[in-house]
Every structure is written in structure tokens, then in C-alpha cells.
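Long-time lurker. I teach an intro course on protein structure, and each term I like to show students one example going from raw sequence to a predicted 3D structure in C-alpha cell notation. This year I'd like something fresh instead of my usual example. Would anyone be willing to generate the C-alpha cells for the chain below so I can use it in lecture? Attribution to the forum is fine with me.
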Amino acid sequence: MRIKVLYFSSVKDKIGLPSEDIELTENSTVNDLVKLLSEKYPQIKDTLQNSMFAVNEEYASTDQKLKEGDTVAIIPPVSGG
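-- Reply from a regular --
Happy to contribute to a lecture. Here you go:
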């Protein structure tokens, strides 16, 4: 199945993409996506472990199942001063 992944803030900066389409197996979860992205982009692995996720504009847990055509936003923690 194909999903769209949206990258924001430090994740977007580190991989140089605002979004991309990702191919996953059926019945994959947000956590499966995190594992795949951690392998594909090792420079964001630590950030992904502390990020929040939204599926189709609603916050989601890492055990949420994904389906064809979903849009997953990766929302990394931000720090301010």
C-alpha cells in the first residue's frame, strides 16, 4: 500500500524533503513506518522516537494501523527560548 508522509521542522531539514510517498505492506502500523524511516534515514532515528504522529490530520498512536492513501504527518518536538 502507498501512503504519503509529511515532514516538518528538524526532520524536514535533516532529510531535505517536505514529503514523500512510501510503500508499506498491508496492515502496517505507524510504528512500522517509524522503523522503515529510521533505516532509510538514520540521521532522524532519535528524533522519530520523540515525535508525535498524525494520520489524516488526527493525532495517532504508534500502534495505529495504516491504510492505502493515508497521510501521516511526523511532528518532531520543538524547543524554544
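Some talking points for your students: The chain has a mean pLDDT of 95. The longest strand covers residues 2-7.
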